[in-house]
Amino acid sequence: MKKITLEFTLNGDPTKVEIDENTRLLDMLRDVLNLTGTKEGCGVGECGACTVIVNGDAVDSCLVLAASVAGKSVTTIEGLSKNGELDVIQQAVLNHHALQCGFCTPGFIMSAKALLDKNPHPTREEIKIAISGNLCRCTGYQQLVDAFEEAAEHYQSAAQ
Fold first, then answer.
1. Pairing state of beta strands 73-75 and 3-10?
2. Angle at which helices 142-159 and 88-95 pack, to 10 degrees?
3. Pairing mode, if any, of strands 57-60 and 3-10?
4. What is the DSSP string of 108-150?
5. Among 17, 56, 82, 87, which is least packed by CB within 10 angstroms?
6. Which residues contact 34 (CB under 8 A, 6 or more apart)?
7. 118-145 confidence digits (pLDDT tens)
8. CB of 110 within 8 A of CB of 77?
């Protein structure tokens, strides 16, 4: 297996790692960089548990070759909190009790983060569309949509 050296920005920090050329982004994050907040649910891009942000777009990391992020910016769930403080989206999820087992939660949060970074004024329907690639097997989606609406209010306030 051919090894490559990959350089990219991870959670705001320059990162350099040696990996097999056919390594998935998900596997590099979890197995090489020990960032286990990104989960593998289905491995075929259907559940969204592995969602991360690459250059501003939410992507299923199980479908992305790690080599394709060379020179790009990757944000994982671990990159959202700063100085021990939760991101407003993470806090809103807690405020609305919008999780059960928590396995899918990082993917939902990353999908919402990608949306709110691009559109701090989403409608409820736009939020539903943004998280439509994420599946939760434990609970309903009402609390998640409510949480992301609350987070959007914080984004709107910060933009003013």
1. parallel
2. 140
3. unpaired
4. HHHHHHHHHHH-SS--HHHHHHHTTT---SSS-SHHHHHHHHH
5. 82
6. none
7. 999 999 999 999 999 999 988 779 999 9
8. yes
- Give the Cβ contact number of residue 125 at 10 Å: 9
- For tokens 């939902």, the residue is 108
| Tokens at 120, concatenated | 């701090």
Contacts of 18 (CB under 8 A, 6+ apart): 3, 4, 5, 6
DSSP 40-52: -SSSSSSS-TTEE
Q: Indicate yes or no: pTM above 0.70.
A: yes
Per-residue pLDDT tens over the stretch 9-67: 999 999 999 999 999 999 999 999 999 999 999 999 999 999 999 999 999 999 999 99
Hey, CA dihedral for 55, 146, 36, 24, is it positive or negative? Answer: negative
| CB-based contacts of 120, cutoff 8 Å, min separation 6 | 152, 155, 156, 158, 159
Cα(86)–Cα(80) distance, integer angstroms:
7
